[in-house]
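Let's study my pick:
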Amino acid sequence: MDGGRAMPGDAPRRLDAEARRERILAAAICYFAEVGFGGTTRDLARRAGMTQALLYRYFASKQELQEAVFERVFLGRLDPAWETELRDRAVPLHDRLCRFYRQYTAAIFTYEWMRIFMWAGLAGEALNRRYLTHVADRLLAPLRDEIAAAGTHRAPEMEDIWALHGAIVYAGIRRHIYHLPVPDDPAPAIERAVACFLAALRLPDPPAAS
């Protein structure tokens, strides 16, 4: 820069810096998925084909890099529209739940998401707790409220909602953690899980008038 004016070489350098930061972040996602957050930035830099000092030019600390991974892999895959769609009472309750879980599993059923989440959980990372709190507040609590508002089901406890959520997410764990065969399309299993869940909460029909 000269007197606040951009010099001819400035823009390419900025683009190069952004591209290099993205390269580091992509490498970190793959690396932490493989070895967990216990892996070192020295080893990560080596795998990314750069020096550790260069890595620290773009991420000041390992914690900052982990935060960027968390934002990209976890929060970045949550669609703000899901909460609105869960509350859309023009759509039948069963269909809303199935639509949400089809979208949610499409976002998280990946090698990187599942493995980083499991590694972070085993390490006691606060990132997992932040993510689960976010999911509970922005998605599962509205889901619970909508079931209660339907008037045809008993109001579920949050533990009931977590049981449904965990049962559906477990298919991704089986595939990416345990390497067990699971259906390529989770939609039929989601439909069955939601139908069984709602059936268990359904209030009995009032007795017919004599």
Remarks:
- Residues 20 and 58 are 8 Å apart (CA to CA).
- Confidence is low (pLDDT under 50) at residues 1-12.
